[in-house]
Amino acid sequence: MLMATAVRRKKLSAPIPHPELTKLRMTLGRLGRVLRQQTDEELSYALTSLLFTIGRSEPATASELADSEKVTPPSVSRSLNRLEALGLIDRAPDAHDGRVTRVRLTSKGRKEREDILRSRDIWLSEHLRQLSEQEIANLIAALPALERLCDPQLPPTS
């Protein structure tokens, strides 16, 4: 049984009422999508995501990247070929096992990653200016709780 199906069958027992829970989920999802759209038009969401994953875990193998991105090895291989053609990554044999290839960002790949982050920061800064000081303080105060929600080590509830 898929995890999402098992979760859907559980009775909703959230600590906040369902309408607010729905609004929180939709708002966080929409904010994530809007921030991800602040990127180079040449890179798709999948390529951008892979670029960031490589930056976090380099040097990485294609199978490690596929596991991390939750995609098939052939899919990640196609994406790696595209990133390599754009000059954003390079591949080299593993120092200890020549049968294994490791993927790293090139200097151009690092710059692209930094440019994407800068674009997202600019967008967010501009939009935060529309909020009051109190609203910004509320967002900052909520950061620890939001970070805990993203933590894969957060213990599941029954």
Key descriptive features of the protein:
mainly alpha, single chain, 158 residues, two-stranded antiparallel ribbon, Arc Repressor Mutant, subunit A, 6% strand
Please give the CATH architecture of the domain at 42-129.
Orthogonal Bundle
Strand line-up across the major sheet? 1-2
Q: Report the radius of gyration as a whole number of Å.
A: 19 Å
> Helicity level, as a percent range?
55-70%
What fraction strand? Answer: 5-15%
Subunit organisation of the chains: single chain
Largest sheet: 2 strands, antiparallel
- Highest-level CATH class of the domain at 42-129: Mainly Alpha
CATH superfamily of the domain at 42-129: Winged helix-like DNA-binding domain superfamily/Winged helix DNA-binding domain
Query: Element order, helices and strands?
Result: HHHHHEEHH
* SS content category: mainly alpha
Give the overall pLDDT as a whole number.
85
Low-confidence stretches: none
Cα end-to-end separation: 17 Å
At the fold tier of CATH, the topology name of the domain at 42-129 is Arc Repressor Mutant, subunit A
Total DSSP helices = 7
Task: Tally the beta strands.
Answer: 2
Q: How does the overall form come out from the CA principal axes? A: globular
